[in-house]
Amino acid sequence: MEDPTQHEQASPAVRKRVQDSFDRQGLMSHLGARVAHIGPGRVHLVLPVRPEVTQQHGYVHAGATSAIADSAGGYAVLTLFDRTLTVCQLEVYGVQPDGTRKLVANGQQTLIRVNRPAG
User: Rg of the chain over CA atoms, in angstroms?
Assistant: First the structure.
């Protein structure tokens, strides 16, 4: 059964905060990643397969996969901005042209909110 919160949208202010932050990330731009969905506690990033993100056998490199998962988890927490300590479940799916999805990586991430120093 599909999770009903999977397609729920975050507020416009939260979506803007996440998208603006994502747009400042040089690595995500370098990888060619984009934001596909921003919901409360859930962010979907897309990484198109291209030669620049593959390893020697033509598969997407685990480093690119883990970078995408790490950023998605961090942004999912940012949608819940008022929480201090958050544990995230990370899932990375490979998606075939016909839409078939296969879980290729998963993990868990613990994040703590840190306020930037003034200045």
Answer: 15
Prediction pTM value: 0.86
Rounded Cα distance between 77 and 51, Å, is: 31
Residue 88, judged by CB atoms within 10 A of its CB (0-12, 13-18, 19+), counts as buried
Residue 11 identity (one-letter amino acid)? S
Q: Using CA atoms, how far apart are residues 87 and 28, in angstroms rounded to an integer?
A: 22
Q: What number of residues does the chain have?
A: 119
* pLDDT tens digits, one per residue of 90-117: 999 999 999 999 999 999 999 988 887 7
Pinpoint the alpha helices (H) of the chain.
Answer: 12-23, 26-31, 62-78
